[in-house]
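We read letters as residues; the fold follows as tokens. A sample entry reads:
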Amino acid sequence: MPHLIDIVSPIYQDLLKSCERRKISVNLDIQDLTLNISDTEPVEKFFKSEIRRALRNCTAGDKITISEADNDSYVKLSVKNSGRETLTTEEKEKLIAAGYEVRARFGYDTIVSLKIAK
């Protein structure tokens, strides 16, 4: 069974290169990279789409954070960005309809999260 590191590592390496060129800070806040992921497709899709969105919203001096938090029943994977642009109402609605948690307000960080069962 693949581990979280197997999914995050190549994505994170690509993100570092993109952010270095654009002078965007990157933070990796993952507690357990050895976490088993039974279905990698939704996790890969989530990270790729939300990192792409974060890169679009960020400019020099902003920060993108990839994080993981877990409890007994689920793991919550998040992509946070400090870009000045927030999500539109339509974007929020689409993300929520897709099963994501969204916290996005003008003037604050945008956080999109995916919960997966353990």
